[in-house]
User: Fold this.
Amino acid sequence: MSQAYLKARRRETIKARISSFVLGAVTIAAVILGNATARAFTAFLFFLFLLFLANYFSFKAMGFRAFKKMADELEGRGS
Assistant:
């Protein structure tokens, strides 16, 4: 596997972990505090999380070969 692919995959994994942690923390804060601002912020973060999932599954749908080709082009190897 190419280095660019592994680096991109690692970056996406880190983003997913951070976003799920932040979403969970804000959700707990919204439940504890129960104020409208926290609930609105939670809804906003949930929307961002859904956008992240859509992005993730669009990369999955492209398939490994297309992603690898894109990574190779970024590294300058071309096809």
